Amino acid sequence: MDGGRASGDAGRGAPSNPTVDASSFIHTPCYCEENVYLLCKELTRIGVADPTGTDLYVVFISNEEKKVPLWHQKASYSDDGFILWDYHVICIQSRRNKEVLDLVWDMDSDLPFPSPFLQYVSDAIRPLSFGDSVYRRLFRVIHAPLFLRSFASDRSHMKDDKGHWIQSPPKYEPIVAEDGTTNNLNEYIAMSVDDVADLESTINNIYFNKRGVVVNEALLPQLFSRLHGLHP
């Protein structure tokens, strides 16, 4: 959860895209899943993304141990922005034109906003840095139109055993899914290496599974290289 449990620890030009300032989006510290939910809605509203968000993908980054190393994070106390989250959430915009770079939207990163996909992977994720250790990252990729209809959070994960807030909640009302579900956040965060399928199965399922698909560090770039022109 970008949330209160983070700890500091141990040819890529700027994308050709309308100028967008991260400060123009709603951002509540430690509520990255809600920040990205609102980001997707705003990108469609201002015309940076497709009107229905078909070119956007919400990506939860976590693992079995909920120990997720990332670099270039603003909350870090380290010069290289290294931090250990229990999970993090970003948005990836997949371009239909292969000549135009895919983009990563991460309001918690000090990299360019948005960043070219390959730059973000190289600089913030640094794939295979941890091999098969407990720190290896997994990525739950959800097509944004499905996520915007299905996601819900009552923010209970941000309260301690006595019901006190660990981090102050957003000022707007909690997000409720279209079907009335009030909390399913953990269904997006929980992931295991056993959830990782082969690339073809992943591509076939991504537009139909409301909880998305899980890929590992090696499959993430392969998946987005295959999504060009596939999304509705």
In short, what is this structure?
With 232 residues, the protein is α+β, with helices and mostly antiparallel strands. The chain contains six helices and eight strands; from the N terminus they run αββββββαβαααβα.
Span between termini: 30 Å
Percentage of residues in DSSP E strands? 5-15%
Instruction: Note the total helix count.
Output: 6
Contiguous uncertain segments of 5+ residues? 3-16
Nearest-integer average pLDDT: 90
Which structural class should the secondary elements be placed in? alpha+beta
**Rg calculated over all Cα atoms:** 17 Å
Shape: globular
Order of helices and strands: HEEEEEEHEHHHEH
| DSSP summary, beta strand count | 8
Characterize the biggest β-sheet: 6 strands, antiparallel
Fraction of residues in H or I helices: 10-25%
| Spatial order of strands in the largest sheet | 6-5-4-1-7-8
Provide tags for this entry.
6 helices; 232 residues; alpha+beta; globular
Q: What does this molecule look like?
A:
By secondary structure, the protein is of the alpha+beta class. The chain has helices at 32-45, 117-125, 144-150, 185-189, 199-205, 219-226, and strands at residues 56-62, 68-70, 83-85, 88-93, 103-105, 115-116, 138-143, 213-216. Strands 6-5-4-1-7-8 form a 6-stranded antiparallel sheet, with helices on both faces. It is globular, with a radius of gyration of 17 Å. The relative contact order is 0.19. Residues 3-16 have low confidence and may be disordered.
